[in-house]
Every structure is written in C-alpha cells, then in structure tokens.
Amino acid sequence: MAAAGSARGGQPSGPDRLLRGLWRRVTQPAAVLGLLIVSLLALPFAMASTLSGAMAAQMEVQADEISTLASSIRSYYADNIVSRLQASGGEAVFSENYRQIHGGIPIPATLAIELGDLFDSANADRRISYGFISDFPFAKRVSQPLDGFEMEAIQAFRTNPSLDRYARLKQSWLGQPSFRVATPVLMRQACVSCHNTHPDSPKRDWKVGDVRGIQEVTVRGLDIKGLGRFGYLMAYMGLVGLVSVGAAAAFQRQAGALERINSRLQDSNDRESEMGDQLRSQVEELRLLSAVAEHATFGVSIADMRQSDYPLIYVNEAFSRITGYPREKAAGFNCRFLRGPDTDPEMVEAIAAAIREGRPFHGELVNYRMDGTRFWNRLTLYPVGGTTGRPDFYVGNQMDVTALHSAQQHDLDQLIQLSEPTAAALSSLEELLAHHAALQASLQNRELLSDTMASFFATERRSLEELQAQLEANRGAIQQLRSELRPRESAPPSPEEPRP
C-alpha cells in the first residue's frame, strides 16, 4: 500500500511532512536568531554549571582518596601495631593518653583523631577537613555535638550493614560548595577488648562489626565570591551576551528594514509593471484611436487649451479634405482661419462662450475653405482632460453639410415658386366668398332662400373659410422657411493663407 501510494502521487509520508515542516520553522531567520540569543544567554550558566560539576567531581575524588588513606592508616595501625604488641606481650602501652604514659602508643581512635588534626593543619584555607566522630565519645574527651549529616550517616550505617559510604553534595552558585563523605568505623577484635574494659568507655558491650562511629572527610570547593578572575570571566561572558543580544537586535532591525525596503521595491516593481502594462494598453488604445481618427469620414481636430491662442495640434485627413487646408497649414494656428463674411457672428459668440465655460458645443455655421469657397460646417466640440470648466484640450468634429443645405434651398425655391399660385388662389377665394355672400343676400332679399338652401350656403362658406385659412398658413410657412434657410447673398472671398 505504501509503495502504491508513493507511486501514485510521490507525496512524502506523514512523519516526513512533519519533519520537513519542523525543519522549515526551525530554519526561519527569526527562529535561528532566537536560538542564537538563547544560546548566548545560556553560555555563562552552562560554564558555571560545568565548572561546578567538575569541582564537585574533583571534591568527591579527593574525599574518597583521603578517606581511603585514613582508613588504610588506621587499619594498618590496628592490625600491625596494636595486635602484634598484644600478641607479643610487649611492654609498650597503647592508650588514648599515650603522651602522659611512658612507652605509650595511641590507640586507633586516638590515631584517627590526631590524623584529622594533621589533615586540617595541612591546608591553610581549611578546604579539606577530616574527622573521627562517634556518638559514644569517651567520658573525659572534649567533643563537638554531631550535626544532622553525621547523625544520619551513623544511623544509616547501623541500619544497613552493607552500606559502606554515605555522601552529600552542597551546591552553591554564589557561595562555597562542599562535598562530605562518611565511611563507617567498625569495631575490630582489638577495639572490642579495649573499649569494653576501658574505664572511660561509655559503652562496654561492643561486638566485632559494630559501628563505633564514622570517619568523615569534607572537601570544600573554591569560593566563587573570592575568585576574582572567574568573576571577570562571568562579567566578560555577560558583556558578550549583552553585546550579542544588542547585535542580534540590530541585525533584526536591519533585517526588518531590508525586508521593508525589499517589500517597497517589490511594490514599486509591481506598480511599474502594472503601469507598464497600463501604458502599453494606453499606447495600443491611442494607436487604435489614432487609426480610427485618421481614417474617419468626418473631420477631427484637437486644440491645445494650455497654449496661448489655443492652436490646433492635430487634424486628420478628413479635416484637410473638407477644409482644403493641409496639416502643415492648419497645425499651430487657431481655427478662426475658417471664418468668412457669411459666418454668423452669433454662432461665433456661442462657440466662444462654450469654450470659456469649458462645456461642449453643437451647431451649424458657414465656413470657408482654403480656396475661398463656402461650405456649411456641422461643428461638434467637446472638452478633454484638465478639470471641470478648465479642459486641457478641445476635440472638434467637422461635417460638410452643404449638400443638405442645398437640398433645403432647392425645396425653398420650389416653395417660393408656389407662393404666387397660393396668393392667386387666396385672391380668387376671397372673390368667391364675396360672391357667395352677395348671392345669399340677394336670395334672402327676394325671399327665395329656403332653409335647405341656407344650410347649404352655411356649409359651403365654412368649407371656403377653412380652405382660406389653410392657404394663409401655407403662405406664412413659406415666408418663415424663406427667412430661415436663404443665406445672405455676398461675393465669395479670394483664396488666402490661414489667418492666425
């Protein structure tokens, strides 16, 4: 199944994904920096702990060595001096007060005590001390009370005869550490005979193997407070730790600043890329619009409203075809060069007002081509860019509608031709109405007008009056169209260059 799953997708197993995810998290810059800071901060404590452990191990070895040495000396003395003297019947006397007895030699306990004094005096700083301690001291011997460790050790040895060592380590970060080791002092045959018969012995039922007391060795470590160089080392490590933390913080700040700079650079690159895309899109759009404007059937012109006198900066081919002005004679000039004698001043003022207010314009006016011929121009203007009321450009569209106006003029001519027949018809109709009224009056005077004839005359008169009103309306419409559509007659101007 595992092989099939691996063959299907090649995906790592669950533990692999977990390990990879953990590795990615651990190798992140922030995680690495955090581990570095923790390691630097923990370095002084690790050194102190290492030194303390090494010191404790050294103290333990020293204590064991001294204890073994003292035990060996005591055993050797008991087995090879006291026992041999007892067996030989020698005159030497072994006693705890051997110094006051002629030929006296110390008993093992006295030897152990005095060896302890020798050990204590051997080191001036009292770093190593040795003691032979019992909870059953001789009556005339001055002894110090047992402390807790010593009582516990004696009790432990008596409770557990197989126990041969009882130790305690006292750690101290700022003080002086110490290591205490106790070994049992067991009663031998020579010791039992002596103690059970000695007048100052507090106990007289000793047996071989009983725990008489303990032999204690105490090794004290170096006092941290007094170690100036070690203090300097700790201070130096602390300073290194602080400097490392500061450097790490500075690195973190620099890394953050670089990350922000990279982020801003990436944003700038993204914006530049986006702007480049937009620019390319706009260029394509402008290219398309330029192609559309260039091939349009109507004129297109652009005036720059930011320059003095609002010159044209672009005209298309249709503009040149309609007006007769090529681009090199139109660009750079105000479009007023299209005006002429028949250009309506009111229309010119309407265009100027629209430009001043920054709004669009649409209308028709008479303009003149470069050769001086007149044409009707359907003009559309609209603002582009800038702000409301203050555009940067005006785009103009021109259409030649002269043919339309010519058709209207032809229609006007036909209407004018109908004006005379209309006037004649109105005159004849007036005469008919007058005759109709006279005939009706004559019949009425002669009492020949019946009701039927009176109704006929009334109906006929209404019809004639309606026809008269329609002819009057037609004549009025003809006169209004004539006044609106007939252009002012004037001679065309001679061809000239564009007027700036």
Q: Domains counted in the coordinates: how many? A: 3
Query: Level of helix content?
Result: 55-70%
Radius of gyration: 67 Å
Average predicted confidence as pLDDT: 76
Q: Order of SSEs, N→C?
A: HHHEEHEHEEHEHEEHHHEEEHH
End-to-end CA span: 91 Å
Structural class, from helix and strand content?
alpha+beta
Q: How many extended strands?
A: 11
Number of helices: 12
Largest sheet: 5 strands, antiparallel
Ranges where pLDDT stays below 50 over 5 or more residues in a row are 1-9, 487-500
Explain this structure:
The chain is α+β, with helices and mostly antiparallel strands and 500 residues long. The protein is 57% helix and 15% strand. The protein has three domains: 46-225, no CATH class; 296-400, PAS domain (Beta-Lactamase, 2-Layer Sandwich), CATH 3.30.450; 406-485. It has twelve helices and eleven strands. The strands form three sheets. The chain has a five-stranded antiparallel beta sheet with strand order 8-7-11-10-9, sandwiched between helices. A four-stranded antiparallel beta sheet has the order 3-6-5-4. It has a two-stranded parallel ribbon with strand order 1-2. A hairpin with an 8-residue loop joins β10 and β11 (393-400). The protein is rod-shaped, with a radius of gyration of 67 Å. It starts with a helix and ends in a 15-residue tail after the last helix.
